[in-house]
Amino acid sequence: MAIAVGHFHDVEPPDVRGRHCRLHSVAQLDSPLLDRDNHREHSDAGGGAGHTGLSPRRRSQSSPCFTTVAAPAGGADHRPPPESSGKMPRVEVVAGRHARGVRELIAEAAAAIASGTRLVPAQGGLGGALLLTGSRAGEHVAVIKPLGDDTAAAGYESKAVLREVAAFLLDHGGFASVEPTALIKISRPVAAPMTTTTTVASIQRFVAHEYDAGELGPSRFSVASVHRVGILDVRLLNIDRHAGNILVKNPPSSSRMQQPLDLVPIDHGLCLPEQLDDPYFEWLHWPQSSLPFSDDELAYVASLDAFMDAETLRAELPALEEPAIRILMLCTIFLKRAAAAGLCLADIGDMMTREFTAQEEEGLSTFEALCKDAHDAVHPPSLLPCPPPDGDGVGEGTATSSSGGRKHVSFGDLSVAEWEAFLERFEQLLPAALDAKKRAASP
């Protein structure tokens, strides 16, 4: 259930004068932080349970934007215990501490938490998202998405939260306007001696907006914004880019009504799957996607370094599985080669998207077919292990799995040498496929 976080209105807020929230950064994410539920942390306790992989869910599982909240039923009192009311919460930055805008975001969020908050159920939405309210009425500071949710499959929320942070870390220079995002741990004192309640979550700066992309026609959107969101989605193999998670940024009050509007992408919990999947790109058939990339956009794409990005994710988010990181590398290489060959965003997205056959069954996309050919060249199908019985789409050491007669390609089974050989073979096969797409797209 989606939750909104606001101030206490029925009790006096704690006196925060002369105090400060302790901001502490740690180098990497350890496995106890990925426990599905919030846990209690004792001063003499150590270790913790491990984490599980992500099972991609339906597209409706992503959290839409929250614009209104409802009061708690029955006027529930969320007053802190008397023994802990004089103690301050502690906010630790787990990942993303050096990224742009994160330090300022954490400072604002810590001040809001220190001033006293209560949980208020939101009117809609899935994914356990929270709104953190600022000091001024109606002002929202951040969106917080905790790991724990009783309605979620074990491990799903934790992996989704990691992907939220990964999308921000990969949006170099704010090219696609992903708002500052970090992985944090919030520790609150409770009544029991030497005990705290700990919540691990992603935190992202709230985007002031009035509409999402589904509430306005795409003709209102700037070409640059559509291209930049699309470039990000291609790199991340986003399987959930629907209109509800593309926000329309509020224009300046002095601007004209018909000025092109800029977009802000949110909800990246279903990007970077652990095996190839069918992406969903809302922008695929928008007219802006069929326009050529600008010189600045081509320069940005050319500057992307798939291998450096992979190292960034391994350092900042070590719990993110290697197959997901390899998906990023592969899609970045594909984007760079396709853009350099002169394909537009719509052509690139079309090559990555599956089509329905006459029997209404999904076939492999052009991109998937290339990857399967390259994979089979370095890891012949006869040597593959049997597919998992559940066919849930999560590749844990499995190269391909069958689901309804369709092959799913994963890269978790490839050694480092085989992965390098795969990339080499993929780049050998790619030029012919790009040329064929250009010829098919020509009038």
TrEMBL record:
Keyword presence, Kinase: yes
PANTHER family hit by this protein: PHOSPHATIDYLINOSITOL 4-KINASE GAMMA, PHOSPHATIDYLINOSITOL 4-KINASE GAMMA 8
Keyword vocabulary terms for this entry: ATP-binding, Kinase, Nucleotide-binding, Transferase
EC number: 2.7.1.67
Compositionally biased residues, Basic and acidic residues: 33-44
Name used for this protein in its record: 1-phosphatidylinositol 4-kinase
GO molecular function terms listed in the Swiss-Prot or TrEMBL record: 1-phosphatidylinositol 4-kinase activity; ATP binding
Top-level class of the enzyme under EC nomenclature: transferase
Region of interest (Disordered), ranges: 32-89, 381-406
Transmembrane segments: none
Family membership noted in the UniProt record: Belongs to the PI3/PI4-kinase family. Type II PI4K subfamily.
Pfam families membership: PI3_PI4_kinase (PF00454)
Native species: Urochloa decumbens
Domain PI3K/PI4K catalytic span(s) in chain numbering: 116-386
